[in-house]
Amino acid sequence: MKIFRNVALIILMSLSAIIIIFGIYFNINLSPVNKSSTKTIAVVIPTNTTTKEIGKILEKEGLIRNANFFYLYLRIYKINNLKATTYDLSPNMSLKEIVDILSEGNSYNPNVVSITFQEGINMRKVASIIAKKTNNSEDDVFNKLKDQDYLDKIIANYWFLTDEIKNKNIYYSLEGYLYPETYFLNNKDASVEDIFKSMLDQMDKVLSPYKEDIEKSNMSVHEILTLASIIELEGVTSDDRKGISSVFHNRLDNNMSLGSDVTTYYAFKIDMNERDLRTDEINTYNPYNTRGPRMEGILPIGPVSIPSIDSIDAALHPNKTDNFYFVADKNRKVYFSKTYAEHNKTIQDLKEKGVWLEW
């Protein structure tokens, strides 16, 4: 009997441990992936998608922790009425909230169009993408950017837009203000204004948490986005971008020009992989060209690309360094220097190693 009681006790304890472990596992997977997240992700659930496939989509988007648990949850609660459509979901939602939304559904639109704008592209590329994916032309995009009534309206609606975007020397009024993301349109007839609204709304969401930091800085939103747009094209990793930001801040503080090639390419509307810059282009004044004359201690007149939040954060929160120079090799590894002599030596070393970038 004593042996039997001991065996029974061991079994009971084992079962209790299993129940506790499963309970912890269950609660973890039910909880939001990120309670503090403020972003919204547009998720398309196509028709005829299985519940297992839906779980994989949600896990890939970072909305649930585990696709297999998602499937298990549906089986346990006998849920099999998830609707195919487009949803706006957030990592701050619990699994139950997400399942409830998917069960309720909405008006499914089989003509939905997915349109993606990558970080670092400029407005010419934005216009090209819109023209390819919708029934708008590139001229429709450029004409909207010149529409003064439209610009006045959005300046009144968005805290981060000011009359600075109406400067006649700026190539494209909303360059740098349209957030790079994947957007879902009801159909190809979506207007340029509707597309811009989605992108401006997203910029509002990602930029608003930085509002206090922006107000404490010595730069306007326009200046921060301008600097961020250059950082976006010059660096790849978060740490590199903060290091590059440090170099640019140091140069501005010491009345030096930024000396950034990417601004010269933008100034003369040349794609960076198209060809190398000519001497006459480098030495020509243009309010975008930070390698040209009369640009000491100032930023370009406006952004030169659409920056990611990573680059915006770097523009606001640079590393604290004494560096004034940087250069990247053909593998996009960045090297920093304090002096021009050190900078030149780095370039020579890269050339000798065969990793110097040449177009």
Question: What would you note in describing this structure?
Answer:
The chain is mainly alpha-helical and 359 residues long. It has three domains: 2-104, Dna Ligase, domain 1; 125-208, no CATH class; 220-353, no CATH class. Helix content is 48%, strand content 7%. The chain is built from 15 helices and six strands. The chain has a two-stranded antiparallel ribbon with strand order 1-2. Strands 3-4 form a two-stranded antiparallel ribbon. Strand 5 (325-328) and strand 6 form a beta hairpin. Helix 10 crosses helix 14 (309-316) and helix 11 crosses helix 14. It is globular and about 90 Å long. The chain starts with a helix and ends in a 6-residue tail after the last helix. The mean pLDDT is 90.
Coarse structural class? mainly alpha
What is the string of SSEs from the N terminus onward? HEHHEHEHHHEHHHHHHHEEH
Q: Would you report the number of β strands? A: 6
Mean pLDDT: 90
Radius of gyration (CA) equals 26 Å
Give the distance, in angstroms, between the N- and C-terminal Cα atoms.
Answer: 85 Å
What percent of residues adopt helix (DSSP H or I)?
40-55%
Strand order of the largest sheet: 1-2
**How does the major sheet shape up?**
2 strands, antiparallel
Please count the helical segments.
15
Domains, number:
3
Low-confidence stretches: none
Measured by DSSP, the beta-strand proportion falls in: 5-15%
> What is the overall silhouette?
globular
